[in-house]
Fold this protein.
Amino acid sequence: MSNPGNIVGGHKANLNNPNTSEESKQHSKEVLDQEFNGGNVDSSSDKNPNNVAGGLKATVNNPQVSKEAKDSAQERLKDMGA
């Protein structure tokens, strides 16, 4: 079976794509609402905590990332105990 996070991501991308038809967008919205709780999929249990921490640390140290994103990443690191 496909990864639910990938399916949700594809439908969300379709909704924001100006080149897709309204019919296609309506279908994506229906799929998200009916099968994926409006697009809220918890896929964090599938992720390696060390990889997540590494990505958050990279965000904190990246000079091209906004202060808000750095603050959010720092807070998540603190919550993880990293």
Summary: The two ends are 32 Å apart (CA to CA). The first helix runs from residue 4 to 15. The chain has a mean pLDDT of 88.
